[in-house]
Amino acid sequence: MALPFFNNQVKRIDQVVAIDLGGRQTKAVHIQNKGERLALLGFAIQDLPGPEKADKPLSADALGNHLKNLLKPLGDRTRLATLAVGMPDAFLRHAELPPMPIPDMRQMLKLNSKAYLQQEMPDHVFDCSIIVSRGPVPPTVDASKPAPPSSNLQKQRVLVGGAKRQTLEVLKTACKVAGIAPHQITPGMVGPANALEVAEPEVFAKEVVALVDIGFKNTTITMLRNGELAMNRVVTIGGDRITAGLSESLGISYAEAEGIKLGMPGEVQQHLEPVIASLGRELRASIDFFEHQQDVTVGTVFLSGGTARSEFIVRTLQTELMVPCKVWNPAKSLQLSLPADQMAGLEQAAPQLAVAIGAAIAAF
């Protein structure tokens, strides 16, 4: 699934670097399309420069230099890059739009976003992907009888991605500083769904699951039903809130709290339970809404993001969600052609790479 609000029309490509622009860390993967299989050639994870909780975005020059340093371990085998942008710099929403070519949809949203997205969004760039239902085939319509009146006959379900034009200009300038050519800029929220389709094709195509990606400031939850991205939500609780809560409860520095969060010694777990339970309740509310609306039951929650590497956090979320939760490996079905040092670190890093791997898959 590709929703690039910037798409450089390059002829068929065989490899790409995909970059997940996270709130605290930037993740990159180098993937090559070898025909029958995709190969992971390298990955890199690097902290953003500056204070851990700085809310001011980097300038184009600072971001470009950061990307240049991030990509050094990946070598110079390709300059083509796909960038995945998360909240609040990009959004992903479901909408109903009149049947028309996608370029016309983009223009219509630009002129009247409030009518279809319930919000004025001046100076945004939009892209759309028509949702093709993979559910049961509807009964055949008897053409000899008049069709029942329905406004839905004049509309189609569409995924709409959007980002501020200024954000895209900063990213394109940063790419120039970094010496890379932007192939696509796309919403990060579609990444985990793309990655799951390759990593777990049977689950993706036949089951009802939730993908939960715990980011720095926000957590995204995406509902998949038989291969269709049926619903998505953003919860404003992420790894930062968990670390800050631990820091405040124990009276230690933010950096110290971040260092012990993943290992989670038993004596500090009680200090985190309120924050994790709050996140669990928000996610459970989204699952309840989806299950009621779709008359289905979510069978598994797939967790990704750096915070998901904590066994305690996974167990606590499972208790709140009352659904089996598992941390999954988005690189599971990729051919691994990694240097020895990266091969050793992949298992630990994999949960953080779901967005980047999914963005790379969409580029081919």
Report what the structure shows.
By secondary structure, the protein is of the alpha/beta class. It folds into 2 domains: about 1-90 and about 165-195 and about 330-364, ATPase, nucleotide binding domain (Nucleotidyltransferase, domain 5, 2-Layer Sandwich), CATH 3.30.420.40; about 200-325, Nucleotidyltransferase, domain 5 (2-Layer Sandwich), CATH 3.30.420. Helices cover about 35% and strands about 25% of the residues. The protein contains 12 helices and 15 strands. The strands form 3 sheets. It has a 7-stranded mixed β-sheet with strand order 1-9-5-2-3-4-15, with helices on both faces. It has a 5-stranded mixed β-sheet with strand order 12-11-10-13-14. A hairpin with a 4-residue loop joins strand 10 and strand 11. Helix 1 (about 60-70) packs across helix 4 (about 165-180). Residues about 135-150 have low confidence and may be disordered.
What share of the residues does DSSP label as strand, in percent? 25-35%
Count of DSSP E strands?
15
Order of helices and strands: EEEEHEEHHEEHEHHEEEHHHEHEEHH
The CATH architecture classification of the largest domain is: 2-Layer Sandwich
CATH H-level superfamily title of the largest domain: ATPase, nucleotide binding domain
| Total domain count | 2
